[in-house]
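Task card 7
Instruction: Convert sequence to structure tokens.
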Amino acid sequence: MKGHEYYLLDVFTNRAFSGNPLAVFPNAEGIDTSTMQAIANELNLSETVFVGRASSPERFPIRIYTPTMELPFAGHPVVGTAHLLAALDMAKRDCPLTLEADVGPLVVGYEKDLARFTAAAPIAIQSSTLNSLTATELLGLKEGEVVGEPVLASCGLPYHLIELDSLEALACAQPSPRVWSEWVSPSGYAQIYLYVIDKTAGQEGVLRSRMFSTEGGVREDSATGSAAAALAGYLAMAMPCPGLWRWEIHQGIEMGRPSQIFVEAERTEDSETLIRIAGQAVVIGSGTLHPGSANPR
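Output:
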């Protein structure tokens, strides 16, 4: 039977069964939109990527799906797809790779065991529908554990960014569906990203994070590159002068799927900000789907 070959990867990690799982169909030419969505729902991973035929050397169109919708941009699908295309010799590690997503072209470079891409959309920052009090209530935390006021930031996919004061507060955070429907849902952006400056890491620039969304109910994600990009852009814009900053973000600890995201933001004199996301990935399996098959009677 003719089927569609796919690969399973764990992304933003260098070992199996950690990081963020991803399915990639490297030869998805001919799969229609409704079938792509049905496949993503069947696999039930946070994201599934469909790679079209190369439009030119080292340039591939991609479409990214969650189990319920198509996304214009997501970070771990870009990193994972880049690693897989190189592993399959569909891309060369010594040449830039361009993945054409709905948000725009994403240029990926390889550096040792990392794939690094530049965000296609500029950082956009606006007020969040949450404030420090409602964010505290949302997360079930104590007064003072939310630092400052939340903001809404995006590099193609918006997140409510909420800074917490400690790793203990981060571990205890548990979003309330009731408060979520009252304060997050009206914004139209159903993703929150919690972060803490990790003072226990022994080095500067280390952050810990958690991401929650309402994809099929309030759920947690183990590694979120698009959120890391939004956070890096926001932190860079808050700096008093132009420059280049680097952060190492650890996510998924509380889920038992530790991940490591490398992010940098470069702010120029005219306030233009370039944001780059990098990470490792490992291929852990492969398979074939036969969506047109039927069970014999």
